């Protein structure tokens, strides 16, 4: 692997069978960008650029880690979300494209304050802070997740009021214009359908909820939001596609109006917005 042009073929040769070719090529280009700073066009221009033995060893180690199903974002220690760089580790979920769609939806509104419940890496709250002038707060029960989120706020040069709190134990929330949450919504029974890279490495606390209470977090947050949203304020959820109609009905019973269910880019019911009057 003496030249930059050898990296992608090396990835394909070593990893076919672990993932499909398209994903492997994507991994290779992400690693090239991370280690060499080359985008795809740069790779063509610098195809004959020699790489050091140290860098070659780093690439081999990354490939070895990928063979264990460890997500590339955890291997590199970073991910991208909404055009920004985020540090990630085993204490936080890897930000997903669907959540970018949720942020897009929120940013279509005007608001002066927002609260992100279950912030994890801080990706939602930081994206909102970066693209609005609103005062943003964020809650998470995990001290280690909040440490990551605070670091990400510093990297992306935004001010967030981070609060350590178990939302299921909360009795009240601050008054805000927007509450947004991507709570645990994958059922325990769905584990068998999930890929090893998620099951083995991503934090189960942030992913899974009991089959007996699939709407546990939505009920708690919806109830608190009804008491703490300003007049005309909005509640946004990312949801399990199976429970869209049930969450709509629940929010209606709480007294929310103008409730909307929105599909994601994969045509799955993924987001809900509701107004408090």
Q: Which structural class do you get from the secondary structure elements?
A: alpha/beta
User: What would CATH call the class of the largest domain?
Assistant: Alpha Beta
Q: Determine the strand fraction and express it as a percent band.
A: 15-25%
Strand order of the largest sheet: 5-4-3-6-9-11-10
User: Low-confidence parts lasting 5 or more residues at pLDDT below 50?
Assistant: none
Q: What is the total number of structural domains?
A: 2
- Specify the CATH architecture of the largest domain: 3-Layer(aba) Sandwich
Indicate the CATH topology of the largest domain: Rossmann fold
Radius of gyration: 21 Å
What is the CATH H-level superfamily of the largest domain? Answer: Vaccinia Virus protein VP39
What brief labels describe this structure?
two-stranded antiparallel sheet, 277 residues, 2 domains, 12 helices, Rossmann fold, 11 strands, alpha/beta
What layout of secondary structure does this protein have?
Layout: H1 7-15, H2 21-36, H3 40-45, H4 53-67, H5 72-76, E1 78-81, E2 84-87, H6 97-107, E3 113-117, H7 123-130, E4 135-140, H8 143-155, E5 161-164, E6 176-181, E7 186-187, H9 196-201, H10 204-207, E8 208-209, H11 216-228, E9 229-238, H12 244-254, E10 257-263, E11 269-275
Helix pairs in contact: 1-2, 1-4, 11-12
